[in-house]
Design goal:
Elements: E1 4-9, H1 19-28, E2 33-38, H2 41-50, E3 57-58, E4 61-62, H3 66-90, E5 95-99, E6 106-110, E7 119-124, H4 127-134, E8 138-142, E9 145-146, E10 154-155, H5 159-170, E11 174-179, E12 194-196, H6 200-205, H7 213-223, E13 229-234, H8 240-245, E14 251-254
Parallel strand pairs: 1-2, 1-11, 2-8, 5-8, 11-13, 12-14
Antiparallel strand pairs: 3-4, 6-7, 9-10, 13-14
Length: 256
């Protein structure tokens, strides 16, 4: 589905401006089909703190034991997801809130015991997303997913990775990551406007790309196998989504 665009909304950008939802609805009324994948890590951390549950990260990924998984699932598939759906509908759009669990859309295997119930994506079935689009709705997807059957279990998956995998499965025109930083910056603090995929390992080794930006960039690399490009933009800027769709960039990642 080449006219779709996958939009990853990071927790730091959800509700940061009033224009993002307007932009999404405007796209949906054009010839472009927006698909939203959202995070919400800051909200999850707040809830964990309020409940007295400790949380730690490894390379930008949250260590997820059973207690953490309960909170992550409740907050992302419930509170965050439905707030985004409501915001789109207030902006005169139609939205459907789902997760990787629904219709076994995203299957992920647990591979690193250190991270607990955190999955690495193995399969994406986009049929539910396509059905929503065909019915004039904007899919809003929480990243909580399932381990392989027949004994399915709930697993936490990084939202950046889900966005990249969904964009790849849809063969989307592009994937846009709305973040709370103005793209990827070099050692002097200047935004790097263009990065080729084969440059990424070196930038990680040089610690230009660090922490939570690593899974974003890895998701970009996965997405550009089948999409035109991947962009990392500052979602706090008004109408940054429309600007990105028009080709204005903070950081763009593409194949050489």
């Amino acid at each position: 589905m080449g006219n779709s665009i996958v939009i990853k909304m990071g927790g730091g950008t959800i509700g940061a401006t009033d224009t993002t939802y307007q932009d999404v609805v405007s796209l949906s009324k054009s010839e472009i089909s927006p698909v939203i994948v959202h995070g919400g890590g800051s909200t999850v951390t707040e809830w964990l703190s309020d409940l007295g549950i400790k949380t730690n990260f490894v390379n930008g990924l949250r260590i997820t034991d059973e207690n953490v998984l309960k909170v992550v699932t409740a907050v992302l598939t419930g509170l965050v997801n439905k707030n985004i759906v409501a915001s789109i509908q207030r902006s005169d759009g139609r939205a459907l809130g789902i997760s990787g669990i629904d219709d076994a859309m995203v299957i992920a295997e647990i591979q690193d015991p250190e991270l607990g119930q955190v999955g690495i994506i193995k399969q994406v079935d986009p049929n539910l997303i396509l059905a929503a689009i065909d019915n004039g709705m904007i899919p809003v997807i929480a990243p909580i997913s399932l381990t392989p059957g027949p004994k399915f279990s709930v697993v936490n998956v990084n939202a950046d990775s889900v966005a990249g995998a969904i964009a790849s499965s849809l063969k989307s025109e592009k994937v846009v990551f709305l973040t709370d930083v103005p793209g990827i910056m070099d050692g002097t603090g200047k935004v790097i406007p263009l990065i080729y995929g084969d440059e990424v390992p070196g930038l990680i080794a040089e610690k230009v790309i660090v922490g939570g930006m690593i899974p974003k960039v890895e998701a970009c690399l996965n997405a550009i196998k089948h999409t035109g490009s991947a962009q990392i933009v500052d979602g706090r800027v008004e109408h940054s989504l429309i600007s990105a769709v028009k080709g204005n960039i903070d950081t763009i990642i593409k194949k050489r």
